[in-house]
Design brief:
The chain is an all-beta fold and about 120 residues long. The protein has strands spanning about 1-5, 10-15, 20-25, 30-40, 45-50, 55-60, 65-70, 75-80, 90-100, 105-110, 115-119. The mean pLDDT is about 95.
């Protein structure tokens, strides 16, 4: 089992910045990917950004150039720096952890943190 603890959400004005953090603990996989997804009211959960244990990143087109994902492997923590926030970034942001072993792929989710951008 992997436990995920998120922090950093809140209320910010449009154009402002927030930084989300997610710390993983428990049975950490050597090969893994961590990332952020978000879900706005009435919409499906969508990918925001992911980063592998090797440092490869992937971003949704809607956040490219504004959001930066990074990780500290020693702390098993992933960060999402969100700049130039827009009202449409308002959503619950969920931390995601995927691990791979000889037994297959495992996936875990955080409890979610609210990000509200006022226009």
């Amino acid at each position: 089992q992997v436990q995920l603890v998120e922090s950093g959400g809140g209320l910010v004005q449009a154009g402002g910045s927030l930084r989300l953090s997610c710390a993983a603990s428990g049975s950490i996989f050597r090969i893994n990917a961590m990332g952020w997804y978000r879900q706005a009211p009435g919409k499906q959960r969508e990918l925001v950004a992911t980063i592998t244990s090797g440092g490869s990143t992937n971003y949704a087109d809607s956040v490219k150039g504004r959001f930066t994902i990074s990780r500290d492997n020693a702390k098993n923590t992933v960060y999402l720096q969100m700049n130039s926030l827009k009202a449409e970034d308002t959503a619950v942001y969920y931390c995601n952890y995927r691990g791979w072993s000889g037994a297959g792929q495992y996936e875990y989710w955080g409890q979610g943190t609210q990000v509200t951008v006022s226009s």
